[in-house]
Amino acid sequence: MRIGVLALQGAFREHKEAFGRIGVEACEVRLPEDLITCDGIVLPGGETTAQRKLAQEHGLWEALADFGRQGRPILGTCAGLILLAKRVDGAEGLSLNLLDVDVLRNAYGRQIFSFETSLPVQRTGTSFLNGAPFQAIFIRAPKISRVGPGVSVLFDLEGEPVAVRQENVVGLAFHPELTLDDRIHRYFLELVRKAGVKRKVA
Predict the structure, then answer these.
(1) Pairing of strands 74-77, 169-172
(2) Which residues are catalytic?
(3) Into how many domains does the chain fold?
(4) Single pTM value for the model
(5) pLDDT tens sequence across 114-173
(6) CA nearest neighbour of 12 among 193, 185, 195, 177
(7) Of these four, 11, 91, 99, 138, which has the most CB atoms within 10 Å of its CB?
(8) C-alpha torsion angle, residues 125, 24, 137, 61 (rounded to 10)
């Protein structure tokens, strides 16, 4: 099982370190050929416009879209969630359209308004957390303003979704890689493992 982390800009090193703490050596993805051998990929937090521009310049944009459409798991955190969404700030064409949600950039405020909070487990599909709350860090976080019918909400904050999943794609408004809680990264590994089994059966 090979996990990639988009390494064009943003918090890719922190994700690599998070996987390293659970015994997985994640590889850095900068070119389409880096993606070919990956079973799953993480799109990290950072600057959305810069990541999109660099991905397009490196020939990665369509490769990432194809990766998701093939059913291979993708985890997007903060800026990564924005890249996965169907619509961004009410407009289409700014993202990969792999996750049927609409997002508003920086809707929780600028960096000075970043915050940390405990997210209670109150949604189906979060048994991997063993019932314990997750300490989530929000930094210039996007807000999920609409959730499509095929999307499951994993966590919400005061009634607003902050973590969602649609089949092989998971999007988070917060940064699990900045904590020492590895449960979300383990959850993603399990998605990758199950997706690999399905491909072998098919």
Answers:
(1) parallel
(2) 78, 175, 177
(3) 1
(4) 0.93
(5) 899 999 876 656 677 777 889 999 999 999 999 999 999 999 999 999 999 999 999 999
(6) 177
(7) 99
(8) -90
